[in-house]
Amino acid sequence: MVPWGPYKALAYIKDTYGNPTVILSENGSICYKNLIFKNYLSYMMVEQLIQNLYFLTTIFK
After folding, report:
1. Radius of gyration over every alpha carbon of the chain, rounded to an integer in angstroms
2. What pLDDT was estimated at residue 45?
3. InterPro entries, from UniProt (predicted)?
């Protein structure tokens, strides 16, 4: 998932349908069961989540 992906999708929904309530239940991140660099993966997931939340908050300003 690219950080601007949810932003564009929610901007389209807002513009097309008049800002309805939207519930996001999953972000689609990959989860590996046998990953050696688990801490690195956790760091990358946190960074991605922070970027996604930033872009999502900019749409509602």
Report:
1. 14
2. 77
3. GH
Give pLDDT tens digits for 8-56. Answer: 888 898 899 998 888 877 666 566 565 555 666 677 777 788 887 888 7
Q: Quote the tokens at residue 60.
A: 């509602």
Q: What is the largest CA-CA distance in the chain?
A: 45
Question: By C-alpha distance, which of 42, 32, 60, 45 is closest to 3?
Answer: 45
Q: Are 6 and 55 in contact (CB under 8 A)?
A: yes
| CA pair distance 29, 23, nearest whole angstrom | 17
| Contacts by 6-12, CB closer than 8 A, 24 or more apart | 6/52, 6/55, 6/56, 7/55, 7/56, 7/58, 7/59, 10/56, 10/59, 11/59
